[in-house]
Amino acid sequence: MFDGLVLAGGQSRRMRTAHGGQADKGLMTWRGEPLVAHACRQLRAQGAGSLWISANRHFDDYAAYGTVVSDDPAHADCGPLAGVLAGLRRSRSPWLFVLPVDVLRWPEDLGARLGAAARPGSPAYACTPDGPHPLCLMAHRDLADGLQAYLDAGGRQVQGWLRSCGAAAVDFPGADVLVNLNTPEDWERWR
């Protein structure tokens, strides 16, 4: 059993609107629903118990899909790891399955395979022929103190934290197994 966390707290710097401003990617409509709805449905389909959404704006909009958790103000500029830490601190289950809001395609066995590879002191993350997807991960809540220490010491790189705790890379072969919508060009490609 595990809880699910959707990372939707970023600033979407690479996703520009038609007016040149930044969009809140998780609330952008993809095939009739906001991306956050797709991510939440995927986490539930993979077996997530409680569902958490890491968001730092538009709280009421995100609350329609799960319980919103914000970054600790002490970690406001720490990037996605601050969201992971907030999720680990609030998880009711020992395990937390993390999925970025902008992931469009997922293997059906993503949660099961990450869960099989993860250990209490060592998370597991997805890796595809396109490269690592370090924020598609399964982590034990006992990692929270170590992650907080990493952030407090100035660490910000997700892969740096994963290396520091001996994370396991789980290979998912095949083209376009995991697809992220990071830019308007990605959006058009997968429309």
TrEMBL record:
One of its GO terms (molecular function) is nucleotidyltransferase activity. The keyword GTP-binding applies. Its cofactor is Mg(2+). Keywords: Cytoplasm, GTP-binding, Magnesium, Metal-binding, Molybdenum cofactor biosynthesis, Nucleotide-binding, Nucleotidyltransferase, Transferase. Its main location: cytoplasm. Gene3D superfamilies: Spore Coat Polysaccharide Biosynthesis Protein SpsA, Chain A. Its EC number is 2.7.7.77. It catalyses: Mo-molybdopterin + GTP + H(+) = Mo-molybdopterin guanine dinucleotide + diphosphate. SUPFAM superfamilies: Nucleotide-diphospho-sugar transferases. Residues 4-159 form the MobA-like NTP transferase domain. It is an enzyme of class 2 (transferase). Mg(2+) binds at residue 102. It holds the Pfam family NTP_transf_3. It is found in: Cytoplasm. GTP binds at residues 7-9, 25, 71, 102. It comes from the Bacteria. The N-terminal domain determines nucleotide recognition and specific binding, while the C-terminal domain determines the specific binding to the target protein. Monomer. PANTHER family: MOLYBDENUM COFACTOR GUANYLYLTRANSFERASE (PTHR19136:SF81). Transfers a GMP moiety from GTP to Mo-molybdopterin (Mo-MPT) cofactor (Moco or molybdenum cofactor) to form Mo-molybdopterin guanine dinucleotide (Mo-MGD) cofactor. NCBIfam families: molyb_mobA (TIGR02665). Belongs to the MobA family. HAMAP family: MobA. This is Molybdenum cofactor guanylyltransferase. It comes from Castellaniella daejeonensis. The lineage of its organism: Bacteria, Pseudomonadati, Pseudomonadota, Betaproteobacteria, Burkholderiales.
